[in-house]
Amino acid sequence: MKTLKATLIGIVTLFILSSCSITLPVNATSNPVGEKVGRSSGNCYLGALCFNVDASINAAARNGKISKISTVDMQVKNILGIVITYETIVTGE
Length: 93
Fold this sequence. Notes:
alpha+beta, 5 strands, 2 helices
């Protein structure tokens, strides 16, 4: 019984710690790369349920007080397909 309990705890821990993260370039402009970084993000659940999510480029630029965008990256973090976090990262001046 102790072995089964330890195995189940190990499997649950493995699933909790399992995740995937990827960052992809979306766009780059001819503007010089500035020091400012803006981020916007939102969570979706079960791949389809997204509530009040604004991970737009405009929101990221506004959050970083950026008027001239240099680069745009998109980062997606997926935890077992249950919670998916979308984040837009904007750099510029």
